């Protein structure tokens, strides 16, 4: 990304011929290059650091001996998954020190194509943080998905030189990479000289080498240290994910510490994290704090949140406190606990800066179109052993189980051990839907449904009885998308998500309150306390993460990359 040449207009501030507009006095400054913490003042002009040493400024901020570190970077996230508008997310998360967000807007693109991407770009144009974009590579995620929008290499070409576009978003369709599929090759070729993100759960050594050969440089799907180390051996940057449902940090960081591994190949990301979890435990600050608690030296942990990520994405002006870098700074009361006193974006306190949100247009707020579903379509015939999605607490991967399901009259009857799960196409009212069984979710006496259902974002519902599942589907059609819980033939709670069926137009406080209420109710109804009820459910339809998923076309074996059978699926021709 080409940046303006600022040296001629800034040099006099470095030489002290002119007073810089703001100087951070009496700081202890973390140098991420030498791993030293050195006393000094940090002088900033026009949002750029112009000098470190002894400086006087027009405005002076007394740091009182506190530690000044670079602003944190989130290496990969989907803003849509936070449930609030992008500008509302930044307004909240930046206070936890994250001044840079590298987003993949493929959730929005899967619903509304380029219109969805444009909305995220526009809504983050005037926020107190850097928001960079990776072009969604897999919209839809696979060739057989039933989503709302598409985004081809030709569509991407128009964005390639956008000043905030860094490269190609997570390449989830590995089979297309392996098969040298032409449309995928077009996308890879378009960004060969830029950063390309991976999505590489449980690939073989040879497959990882194919990824590296294709030019893919990062991955955020490692769930074990052994796998993360294998990725690092292939020259990939491992983005250690710690979100609301996928919590991979402990496993990977413990391995790094035990094996004394160099941390240069590791960065941090949230991927998918609800706003209430951010408000409760922090953002990238939480990753740093947890890594330190597990034995990573504090300076190394901050490098993983700053310079490592900046280098990976070619952001030379970010991730460090040095002359010429952007003045994105976090003032810490304490290094070990990552206790944040203040956060500055381009030299200004973020508490004094307000985002300027945009209003989404009508085609982004009317995206739920369902062909009427009948109760009998939720029936699942069983005969002998059947395929069951096995939920794994704290992970996005699932187990492909085979089990003899409880039944009556030849049809599956859910219980506390085995719930029913269904996916209904919601973009074009095709009537496509499928029903299956899931173990480890645990809901009793009702149903939970969501229009957030990665990555095609159809309606997904889980429950232990058909009437409540049907009511939940109908409720989300009524609200234009969202989360809902039903029980006893009544709607208990709903969080409307009218923007793309993914995002609320409520302020975060109201979203927080509703999600907390709904999460508490879900656990009262027996949902496994080791999972995040809504985020875990939202990933049960994504057919690029092993081992078993349910799409609107049926149960899908990700390992074999093939559908299991036709039972419990409807092609849309008989509904209505």
Given the helix and strand composition, which structural class is it?
Answer: alpha/beta
Distance between the termini: 52 Å
Number of helices: 17
Question: What is the C-alpha radius of gyration, as a whole number of Å?
Answer: 24 Å
- Strand percentage, roughly? 25-35%
What overall geometry do the principal axes of the alpha carbons give? elongated
* Helicity, as a percent range: 25-40%
Which sheet architecture does the biggest sheet show?
Answer: 9 strands, mixed
The beta-strand count equals 30
Low-confidence parts, pLDDT < 50 over ≥5 residues? Answer: none
Mean pLDDT: 94
Structure description:
This protein is an alpha/beta fold and 576 residues long. Helices cover 26% and strands 28% of the residues. It is built from 17 helices and 30 strands. The strands form six sheets. Strands 17, 18, 21, 22, 23, 24, 25, 26 and 30 form a nine-stranded mixed beta sheet that branches. Strand 25 and strand 26 (490-496) form a beta hairpin. Helix 3 (106-112) crosses helix 4 and helix 12 (284-293) packs antiparallel against helix 13 (298-305). The longest helix has 17 residues, at 508-524. The radius of gyration is 24 Å and the shape is elongated. The N and C termini lie far apart (52 Å). The mean pLDDT is 94.
């Amino acid at each position: 990304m080409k940046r303006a040449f600022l040296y001629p207009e800034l040099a006099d501030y470095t030489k002290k011929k002119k007073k810089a507009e703001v100087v951070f006095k009496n700081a202890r400054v973390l140098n991420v290059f030498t791993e030293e913490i050195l006393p000094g003042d940090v002088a900033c002009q026009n949002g750029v650091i112009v000098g470190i040493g002894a400086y006087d400024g027009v405005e002076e901020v007394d740091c009182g001996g506190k530690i000044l570190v670079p602003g944190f970077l989130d290496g990969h996230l989907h803003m849509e998954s936070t449930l609030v508008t992008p500008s509302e997310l930044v307004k909240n998360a930046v206070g936890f020190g994250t001044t840079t967000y590298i987003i993949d807007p493929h959730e929005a693109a899967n619903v509304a194509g380029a219109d969805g991407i444009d909305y995220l770009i526009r809504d983050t144009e005037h926020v107190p943080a850097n928001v960079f974009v990776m072009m969604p590579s897999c919209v839809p995620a696979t060739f057989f998905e039933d989503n709302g929008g598409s985004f081809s290499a030709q569509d991407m070409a128009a964005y390639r030189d956008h000043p905030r576009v860094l490269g190609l978003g997570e390449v989830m369709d590995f089979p297309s990479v392996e098969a040298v599929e032409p449309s995928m090759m077009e996308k890879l070729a378009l960004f060969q000289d830029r950063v390309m993100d991976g999505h590489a759960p449980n690939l073989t050594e040879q497959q990882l080498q194919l990824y590296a050969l294709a030019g893919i440089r990062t991955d955020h799907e490692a769930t074990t240290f052994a796998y993360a180390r294998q990725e690092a051996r292939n020259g990939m940057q491992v983005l250690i994910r710690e979100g609301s449902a996928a919590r991979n940090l402990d496993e990977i960081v413990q391995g790094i510490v035990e094996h004394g591994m160099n941390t240069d190949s590791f960065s941090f990301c949230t991927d998918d994290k609800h706003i209430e979890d951010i408000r409760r435990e922090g953002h990238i600050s939480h990753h740093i704090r947890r890594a330190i608690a597990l034995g990573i030296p504090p300076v190394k942990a901050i490098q993983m949140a700053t310079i490592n990520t900046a280098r990976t994405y070619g952001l030379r002006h970010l991730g460090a406190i040095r002359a010429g870098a952007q003045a994105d700074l976090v003032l810490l009361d304490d290094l070990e606990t990552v206790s944040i006193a203040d956060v500055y974006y381009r030299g200004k306190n973020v508490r004094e800066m307000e985002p300027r949100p945009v209003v989404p247009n009508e085609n982004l707020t009317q995206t739920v179109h369902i062909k009427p579903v009948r109760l009998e379509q939720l029936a699942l015939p069983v005969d002998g052993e059947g395929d069951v999605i096995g939920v794994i607490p704290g992970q996005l991967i699932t187990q492909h189980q085979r089990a003899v399901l409880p039944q009556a009259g030849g049809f599956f009857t859910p219980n506390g051990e085995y719930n029913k799960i269904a996916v209904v196409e919601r973009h074009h009212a095709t009537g496509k839907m499928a029903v299956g069984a899931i173990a480890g979710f645990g809901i009793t006496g009702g149903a939970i449904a969501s229009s957030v259902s990665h990555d095609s974002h159809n309606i997904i519902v889980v429950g232990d009885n058909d009437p409540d599942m049907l009511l939940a589907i109908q409720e989300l059609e009524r609200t234009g998308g969202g989360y809902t819980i039903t029980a006893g033939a009544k709607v208990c709670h709903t969080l409307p998500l009218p923007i793309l069926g993914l995002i609320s137009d409520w302020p975060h406080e109201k979203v927080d309150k509703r999600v907390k209420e709904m999460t508490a109710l879900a656990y009262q109804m027996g949902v496994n306390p080791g999972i995040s009820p809504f985020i875990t459910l939202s990933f049960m339809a994504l057919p690029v993460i092993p081992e078993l998923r349910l799409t609107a076309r049926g149960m899908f074996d990700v390992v074999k990359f093939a559908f299991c059978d036709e039972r419990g699926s409807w092609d849309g021709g008989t509904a209505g």
